[in-house]
Write a structure and sequence with these properties.
The protein is an all-alpha fold and 417 residues long. It contains 21 helices and 2 strands. It has helices at 2-16, 26-34, 42-50, 53-73, 81-104, 112-136, 138-145, 155-158, 173-192, 198-211, 219-231, 236-263, 266-277, 279-285, 293-300, 307-312, 331-338, 340-343, 345-361, 368-384, 392-408; strands at 19-20, 24-25. Strands 1-2 form a two-stranded antiparallel sheet. Helix 2 (26-34) packs parallel to helix 5 (81-104), helix 6 packs across helix 9 (173-192) and helix 9 (173-192) packs parallel to helix 11. The longest helix has 28 residues, at 236-263.
Length: 417
């Protein structure tokens, strides 16, 4: 049990990367705590050098060189993208010792993907518990605020207490995007664990609703999880999950109103949370279609591009006003404006090489449906914002999973076929 707690501690600190005085953020602290597990272990260095990490780093530096080349060729000298790449470079190395520490202290796990999915699931259960406490207690949130980034902590008041509740560095898209992936890993964990309880289902529902406090994008995680379970209907656990999900949903419908009134949160949920989290349903019922204010803004950010821009980009990442160029947030548009189709190739090569490593080290445990949904999450989220080979939260989760699988070879989890 103590090892599991330690592993959750490391993964939680890496994924959510919240501010910690002196250490800068929790990811750096996780890195420091993990150093004693590997600094004097020769196999850490040999395994790292023998692994696919070197190719991964070469592809990463190809992105850096491509970025430099593009902005110089276009004479824009817009080097702002390099800041994000520098952060990601730090994250790559910050994830290595914790991944090794988890692999070294979790020997003899028959299904390593199931185990890391369990650790990720518990991390999101913990974050959801923090969100609930922040909702219920302003004093508790005041403590959480200390660990939030300075430019994020004021959104609690701006959104009337609906957002800004998490123990995380980012409170907007970066958090809602990683909640999507978190729900997919929870779906895998529940589908493959030995026994699914009602408590498991309740926790999944809690994660779904708490994810909405980060942004409506997180609802995609619930849709993907249910789709994954439906397509895995032959698995006995899938039938158990849907049966218990139905029972819990019916009981929740009967008990939620009295519970909210006892907690004194009924008016808040009806007047503030539901209009925000389920704006698309509210608009639909009012005859305005399945749209939200954010989706309308998102679609307006997709502009027609000339062929030369599509192919070679403009070398522009940030506009003169300091906002994203053309005030466009979608990942695909930002890639087109900066790189164009041709120079965007290293971005996607880097991502799919990570996926290849993921498939290589988990091939005994993974099913194709999970892999397709996993890749699909990144591709779909990139429609909303810059995710692929960019967003720190989702990259941290990806690196933890990939590096854990990589180091698992050393400790006998990986069976060659």
């Amino acid at each position: 049990m103590h090892k599991t707690i330690f592993h959750v501690f490391l993964v939680f600190f890496l994924i959510f990367s919240f501010r910690i005085p002196f250490f800068y953020n929790s990811a750096i602290l996780a890195f420091i705590i993990s150093i004693p597990f590997c600094v004097l272990r020769s196999d850490f260095y040999t395994q790292t050098l023998k692994s696919d990490l070197l190719v991964l780093l070469l592809l990463f530096f190809l992105i850096v060189l491509t970025t430099l080349l593009v902005v110089i060729l276009h004479s824009t000298y817009d080097f702002d993208k390099l800041n994000a790449l520098a952060s990601q470079f730090v994250v790559i190395f910050a994830c290595l010792p914790p991944a090794y520490a988890i692999a070294r202290t979790s020997k003899n796990k028959k299904n390593k993907l199931l185990y890391i999915s369990k650790i990720i699931s518990i991390s999101f259960y913990l974050q959801s518990f923090i969100v609930i406490l922040s909702l219920l207690s302003y004093d508790f949130w005041s403590i959480i605020k200390i660990f939030q980034a300075s430019d994020q902590a004021d959104i609690y008041e701006k959104y009337q207490g609906v957002r800004g509740l998490s123990l995380a560095g980012g409170q907007f898209f970066s958090l809602s995007a990683v909640f999507v992936l978190g729900q997919l890993f929870i779906a895998y964990y529940l589908l493959n664990k030995s026994k699914v309880s009602y408590f498991d289902i309740i926790l999944f529902i809690i994660v779904f609703f708490c994810g909405l406090t980060a942004g409506r994008t997180s609802a995609l995680g619930g849709v993907i999880a249910i789709s994954y379970w439906l397509l895995s209907w032959r698995n006995h656990n899938s039938k158990v999950i849907f049966t218990k999900l139905f029972v819990v949903s019916m009981l929740s419908a009967l008990l939620i109103v009295p519970l909210l009134k006892v907690l004194g949160k009924y008016d808040f949920v009806i007047d503030v949370f539901i209009p925000f989290a389920f704006e698309f349903l509210v608009n639909y019922l009012e005859g305005d279609g399945l749209s939200t204010s954010s989706s309308n803004v998102l679609f307006s950010m997709y502009h027609g591009l000339s062929l030369d821009v599509i192919l070679l980009g403009l070398g522009r990442y940030i506009g003169a006003d300091g906002a994203p160029f053309m005030h466009s947030d979608p990942g695909y548009m930002r890639n087109m404006y900066l790189y164009g189709l041709f120079f965007s190739m290293p971005i996607f090569l880097f991502f799919f090489f990570n996926v290849n490593i993921f498939l290589k080290f988990y091939r005994d445990n993974i099913d194709k449906k999970f892999l397709y949904f996993f890749v699909g999450c990144f591709l779909l989220l990139h429609v909303k914002g810059e995710v692929i080979s960019h967003l720190i939260t989702t990259q941290s989760l990806l690196f933890v999973v990939v590096f854990y699988g990589m180091y698992s070879i050393r400790f006998g989890f990986y069976n060659e076929r």
